[in-house]
Amino acid sequence: MKKTKKHQKKNHYFGGYWSQTFGLKAIITKLIMFSIAIVLLIPAAVALNLWAQKSPMKEFDNSFISIEINVNQGIAFSWLENNTMYVYLIQAIVVFCVLIILIFFCKKWYYVLFWSLVFLGGLFNIIDRVCVKKVLCLGDELVKNAAIDYFKFNINGINFPAIFNIPDVGVCLGAALSVLTGLVELIIYPFKKNKKSNKK
Asked: What are the transmembrane regions (predicted)?
């Protein structure tokens, strides 16, 4: 009898997981959120990337966001700048792990949206790195194995050292929103649990 109950619980858990992850409603939700992430990120990323390649102006200072076109052969803060193979390997592993999280672990629509932004931002940077291009304001040499960055933040007169692009914003924003939402849910969960137990 105990074994039967345990077996039923397992079946209920895996059945619930399967329907929440791969059921028709779940797949439609994921496709919609992924499409929204594409619309939010990719057109702006492509447009600004092409603009950065053609712009004769390298720098433009502003009070909050400064334009500074540059190429980055490394990853965060130009880390591993002279190790192309490791850069590609690390980025590919990270993007693959994000894809696994997106497919198997994101059940709520907002997590799907957040992790879609992370995935698309990482993937776009890899594609940008693979493409050989010419950046007008940096000279006549072809740029290889590098992503184009084009803006940085100035907060209260302090220049943030890193230069970003739109895909970087997608990655950072998606990851930050996912973490913050998770923390909020952890804080709220005990209160929801108490309400349910009080109703019973």
From this structure: 31-52, 85-105, 110-127, 169-191
Q: Are 141 and 71 in contact (CB under 8 A)?
A: no
Token reading at 59 = 């720098």
Looking at this protein, which amino acid is placed at residue 108? K
46-75 pLDDT, tens digit per residue, is 999 999 999 887 777 776 778 888 888 888
* DSSP sequence for 59-92: EE--SSEEEEEEEESSSGGGTTTT-HHHHHHHHH
What is the number of other CB atoms lying within 10 angstroms of the CB of residue 42? 17
In terms of phi and psi (left: phi > 0; alpha: psi -120 to 50; beta: otherwise), the region of 157 is left
How many angstroms separate the CA atoms of 99 and 93, rounded?
10
Structural domain boundaries in the chain? 2-199
Q: What is the tens place of the pLDDT at every residue in 122-138?
A: 999 999 999 988 888 88
Flag whether the pTM goes above 0.90.
no
- Over residues 78-98, mean pLDDT: 89
Which amino acid belongs to residue 69? Answer: I
> What is the Cα 71 distance to its own chain's centre?
20
Quick one: the chain helix, strand, coil %, rounded to 5?
A: 70, 15, 20
